[in-house]
């Protein structure tokens, strides 16, 4: 459903918003371990630290590691604030 919406083949209100319940736990863990940091005052942005970027680069070199996740994210490329805004605006009719 997400890819249908992302590609413009399904209207937004057919998708119910569901957050992965483990996402906040994961984000908190990577912050605690110094791999990411909150990057704005309202706490809604998280960015990788240099250590996090280094780990991400190492993970990227391991082709079989997290392969499904890497393929999923590659299908969303380019994933940016601008692209997300474009997709959201396109479905508002």
Shape: globular
What is the CA-based Rg, rounded?
Answer: 16 Å
Uncertain runs with pLDDT below 50, 5 residues or more?
A: none
**What percent of residues adopt helix (DSSP H or I)?**
40-55%
Q: Please, what is the average pLDDT? A: 82
Kindly summarize this structure in a few lines.
With 93 residues, the chain is mainly alpha-helical. It is 52% helix and 6% strand.
Task: List its traits.
globular, 52% helix, 93 residues, 2 strands, mainly alpha
Describe the 3D structure.
With 93 residues, the chain is mainly α. 52% of the residues lie in helices and 6% in strands. The chain is built from five helices and two strands. The protein is globular.
SSE inventory with pairings:
Elements: H1 2-6, H2 23-32, E1 36-38, E2 46-48, H3 50-61, H4 67-76, H5 81-91
Antiparallel strand pairs: 1-2
